Amino acid sequence: MEFGLTDTQRDIQRGARRFAEKEFDSKIGRDLDKDGKFPKSIFEKACRLGWVGIDYPEEYGGQSFGLFEKVLVIEEFCRRDSGIGISISLADMASGIILRHGDEQQKRRFLMPLLEEKWINTVAATDSVNARTKAEEDPSGYVVSGKKSFVVNGSIANTIVLFCEIRSSSDPDTVKPIPLIVEGDREGVKIEGRKTTMGMRMVPVNEIAFEQVKIPRDHCIGGEEDSLAAFLTEQRIRTATQALGIAQGAFERAIEHAKIREQFGRKIIQFQGLQFMLAELCTQVEAARSLVYRAACNYDAKSSDLEPMASMARLFATDVAVRAAVDSIQIHGGIGLMKEYPIERMLRDAKTIQNLEETNLLQRALIGKRMTGL
Predict the structure, then answer these.
(1) pLDDT at 249
(2) Which of 26, 177, 278, 358 would suit a FRET pair with 144, their CA atoms being 20 to 30 Å apart?
(3) What is the CA radius of gyration of the chain?
(4) What ranges do the domains of the chain cover?
(5) For the segment 322-336, what is each residue's pLDDT rounded down to a tens digit?
(6) Which CATH code fits 121-219?
(7) Any idea of the CA torsion for 260, 265, 268, 272, to the nearest 10 degrees?
(8) Quick one: pLDDT at residue 374?
């Protein structure tokens, strides 16, 4: 198996790193995190330079690369600043669904505005406990009612891919999921209270109520494949990549600080116990990278073992990110707990992506189910 990057992929990696180092100022990140604001100007610049939508076909404004190249960009962004990197990488959550399952008209109408720095999209998939989201057919399309919880980008999304239940017209006893494209300003779409999360504070997380929302028939995303399962698989790889970037960034900050901090008249990097800690952490990060890269390659190759590999990558990489942030704080000592230092925010962001959309307990259950054939 070839583990090396091509020259083009290395250029993408270097370019994304240079962009992040130039644009992701630590003070800006700290202020955006404190105020709970999306990094709009940085996102717009990333769109103009082609870092967002790098996996779109050229006819829709992209560069016709795959998820693997997108992974390289996300990793570098989150390595530099966990909050800004996560928020930019989540700004096009719904793009994969529309790109791979939508028709020509849907792709041009709902994908291209994002690259023109105009629209942000999201996916609403998690039903509220007391108000499941259901669709009913009417002569012009669909009428949707219900409520979705934990909608990332809920208050800033221009386009929402909504997964809801609909009864089969041929078999009324059968209920199946249906993906519908809903504009954020469509009548009946109500953005409710923002959730106050531990991390990911630059990304608004909301509940959204759908009160008899009328959706045209041409807003239904077709295709024979299960688009929800495909979305979840891609999102697991994206989350794993965010975690990988955080882990790498936390590790590098630990090394930097250990080289300047002194105890007992020596740089702490000289102590063997700390070297052992860093060696184990480095090994964990490299193992996470191997899993994430393999999952992304499998996605692009449409491999048969994609689903378990995506879950393994997410499970392992998010665990490593939390551990790397905790160990880096330990090496930083007391100042690692201060909000002036980015490592404190990296821990909050790592723990949040580990649990917000899908927990690691769920990943273990999915891997176990696939492994045992149940």
Answers:
(1) 98
(2) 358
(3) 21
(4) 7-115, 121-219, 227-372
(5) 999 999 999 999 888
(6) 2.40.110.10
(7) 150
(8) 66
For residue 166, the model assigns a pLDDT of: 87
Asked if residues 73 and 295 have their Cβ atoms less than 8 Å apart, the reply is: no
CATH number of 227-372: 1.20.140.10
Running DSSP on this structure, what letter comes out for residue 52? Answer: T
Q: What is the pLDDT of residues 209-221, one digit of tens each?
A: 999 999 999 999 9
Architecture field, domain 7-115: Orthogonal Bundle (1.10)
Q: Is 116 exposed, middle or buried (0-12, 13-18, 19+ CB in 10 A)?
A: exposed
Backbone angles phi, psi at 39, to 5 degrees: -75, 70
DSSP-assigned letter for residue 22 = H
Q: How far apart are CA 186 and CA 2, in angstroms?
A: 48
Show the tokens assigned to 219: 């807003």
Contacts of 67 by beta carbon, 8 Å cutoff, 6+ apart: 55, 234, 237, 296, 299, 300
With beta carbons less than 8 A apart as the criterion, state whether 162 and 219 touch.
Answer: no
| DSSP strand pairing (175-183 vs 121-124) | unpaired
Average the pLDDT over 181-194 and give the result: 94
First and final C-alpha spacing in the chain: 30
74-92 pLDDT tens trace: 999 999 999 999 999 999 9
- 39 closest CA partner among 202, 159, 246, 204: 202
Please check the confidence at residue 231 and state whether its pLDDT lies above 60: yes
Q: How far is Cα 181 from Cα 220, in angstroms, rounded to an integer? A: 6
The dihedral through the CA atoms of 77, 82, 84, 85 has a sign that is positive
Give CA 103 to chain center in angstroms: 24
Indicate the pairing of strand 121-124 with strand 159-167: parallel
